[in-house]
Amino acid sequence: MSTSSHAEGLQGSPARMSPDATPVSARRRIPLRSTCAQPHVCPAPVRMQVLSRTPMFAGLVEEQLADIDRRMTSLSWAEGDALHVEGAPAEHLYLVAAGRAKAYRTAPNGQEVVVELLGPGDLFGGLRTLGQEAYAETVEALTTVCALRIGDDAFRQILGEHPEVGLRVLEDTTALLAQARTDVTRQSTATVAERLAAVLLRLAEKFGEPAREGGTLIELPLSRADLAGMTGSTPESVSRVMSRWRKDGVIDAGRRWTAVRDPRWLAEIAGAEA
Amino acid sequence: MSTSSHAEGLQGSPARMSPDATPVSARRRIPLRSTCAQPHVCPAPVRMQVLSRTPMFAGLVEEQLADIDRRMTSLSWAEGDALHVEGAPAEHLYLVAAGRAKAYRTAPNGQEVVVELLGPGDLFGGLRTLGQEAYAETVEALTTVCALRIGDDAFRQILGEHPEVGLRVLEDTTALLAQARTDVTRQSTATVAERLAAVLLRLAEKFGEPAREGGTLIELPLSRADLAGMTGSTPESVSRVMSRWRKDGVIDAGRRWTAVRDPRWLAEIAGAEA
DNA sequence: GCGGTTGATTGACGCCCGTCATGGTCCGAG
DNA sequence: CTCGGACCATGACGGGCGTCAATCAACCGC
């Protein structure tokens, strides 16, 4: 559910190097694929494909999509770059074309709390039209990212011409709200292990790819610190829990990568709801 | 911000009994006003007034509002009643006309986590049209509540006739999303005291009325357990913190009522953001 | 007024987990 | 190959806060 990730972007040649078997020594290889090879330009057909696969524009015909495409500008960022920062005036809506990004807030005490992970087809950003004065989150590229961007006026035009688009965005936002409230609930009542299990399940569902060694590889370069940010915890606590699970064969993980071996068992731990 | 509470419903005669001064002995009186005296019927002019003051329908003329009013049914509930329950098929949108309600989820461990407090003008519920299969929360009346209700078909009709209404709902939902994510962040990083301070400030802003004794009375019959549900904590912890603050003169509180005496100090504790 | 009930307060105890610190491993640069 | 830096693992310690329990004040119905 939530902003799905069908439009799986164009993936470059697998930069994957790990062998088939997974002895303890091979754990450290990074099995993440590099995505969106071309740095600063998304060719027109790719852009069209992204638009056509985005739930937000479902039901529009090619001509209409081309019209919308003309009003969007395509941009790209390198890993570690910020697409926009918390507190800056909200002037654009973004649509991810390829790559991964994380949206996080910085708490008063300085900790980063990750509120959403973004992939192809996901919508983020903000606009005055939607009642947002400033971006509430910082969005940072986890891999090379390509995204389409649209401004306030153009978005308002599109809404005028295609009212159903607004409804789709509303659906989307409603789903995000439901998920955020699920997070609040879990944060308030569950232990670190339970929260981590739920997070990993959600990631596996949204970003998972079947791995050769069996299980589901989460196609995201997440550090322990990132996972800590998503569970409202610390890198140390995350590390401890994951070590235990690795010994039990529930998951597999290394430097900035994670795979789920036994989803059932994780679901058991999570206690319900994803 | 968020779904504001301008439409202050009709308040019946004050059921307030506390004396002017507030010696320690008088703390226990319930200074809450009973709202919406008439049980099962909201007279037409009142309904129109509610609609006209709701942000969602801002900009519509009287005639249009009357048209919308005709498609909504008015209902009322007694304190403790559930307006709808978590998991039931989402078939209605509700608009609070008078009274207070809380929306909460029940965590796997049985704890109730309050995700929103509702007053006149607030929108809640869910519809298939908005992508909701089932209600995600249970909404329970804290006082006698009157609300207007609308079904899927009628809502879709209204959206068709007045596209701008959809945009307003979207604004509203966006604001709720931002707030929910603020909650997630706070839940992950702040202490119980900090969270409670933030919650009280938010309540004072939305439901506060200047009290005779000075300070701001929060017009909600909230128990320690309710506050615990809003802070992701326990009644005991909430009680401890509030006792301390009462000794320091920061707040005043009794059985199911709370007043803020020194908002500045609370804001200091909360550390930022409401 | 008077008991029963509900809600609030306060104390004691213990565990989860955040914090600090150390050492190991992997990776890229030169 | 070697060095340095980033990331991860693991141990020890302590505090915040959840849990259990007893007491008490306030409210309601009679």
Can you put this structure into words, describing what you see?
2 copies of one chain form a homodimer. The first copy, chain A, has 274 residues and is an alpha+beta fold. Chain A is globular and about 55 Å long. Chain A starts with 43 loop residues before the first helix and ends with a helix. Helices cover 37% and strands 20% of the residues of chain A. A 4-stranded antiparallel β-sheet of chain A has the order 1-8-3-6. Chain A has a 4-stranded antiparallel β-sheet with strand order 2-7-4-5. A 4-stranded antiparallel β-sheet of chain A has the order 9-10-12-11. Chains A and B meet through α4 of A and α4 of B.
Q: What radius of gyration of chain A results from the CA coordinates?
A: 19 Å
For this entry, what is the oligomeric state of its chains? homodimer
Poorly predicted runs of chain A are 1-26, 32-39
Topology order of chain A in helix (H) and strand (E) letters: HHEEEEEEEEHHHEEHHEEH
* Distance separating the two termini of chain A: 10 Å
In the sheet with the most strands of chain A, the strands line up as: 1-8-3-6
Number of helices of chain A: 8
Strand content of chain A: 15-25%
Largest protein interface, residues of each chain = A-B, 45 and 45 residues
Could you give a short account of the major beta sheet of chain A? 4 strands, antiparallel
User: Which geometry of chain A do the CA atoms define?
Assistant: globular
Compute the number of strand runs of chain A.
Answer: 12
Which bin fits the share of residues in helices of chain A?
25-40%
Mean pLDDT of chain A: 86
Based on secondary structure, the structural category of chain A is alpha+beta
